[in-house]
Amino acid sequence: MELRRLLEATGRACAAHPWRVAGGWLAVLTVVVALSATVGGTLRDAMTVPGTSSDRAYARLLAGFPAEAGAEAHLVARWPDGSPDRAALTRATSEVRGLAGVRTVDERDSADGRTTLLEVRYDAEVADVPLRAATDALTRAAAPLADAGARVAVGGEVPEAIQGPNGLAETVGVGIALVILLVAFGSALAAGLPLLIAGVAVGAGLSLIALLARGMDVNTVSPTLGSMIGLGVGIDYGLFVVARHREGMLNGLDRLAAAARATATAGRSVVFAGGTVLVAITGLALSGVPSFGSMGLAAGLVVLCAVAASITLLPALLGALGRRVFGRRARRTAAASTRAGFRSRWAERMGRAVVRRPAIWLTAAVVAMLALAAPALGMRLGQNDAGSERTSNPTRQAYDMVAAAFGPGANGPLTIVVDRRRVDEPTLARLVTTVAATPGVADVSPTAVSPDGGTVAFQITPGSGPQDDATYALVRRLHGQLPPGADVTGPTAATVDLTGVLGTHLWQVVGAVLAVTSVLLVFVFRSLVLPVKAVLTNLLSVGAAYGVMTLAFQTQVGARLVGLDGPVPIAAWAPVVLFAILFGLSMDYEVFMLSRVRERYDQTGSVTASVVSGLADTARIVTSAAGIMIAVALGFALDPSVMVKIIGVGMAAAILVDVTIARLVLVPAAMALLGERNWYLPRWLGGPSPAPASAGTLPAERHRDDTLAGSRA
Question: Of 6, 94, 224, 522, which sees the most CB atoms within 10 A?
Answer without folding.
Answer: 224
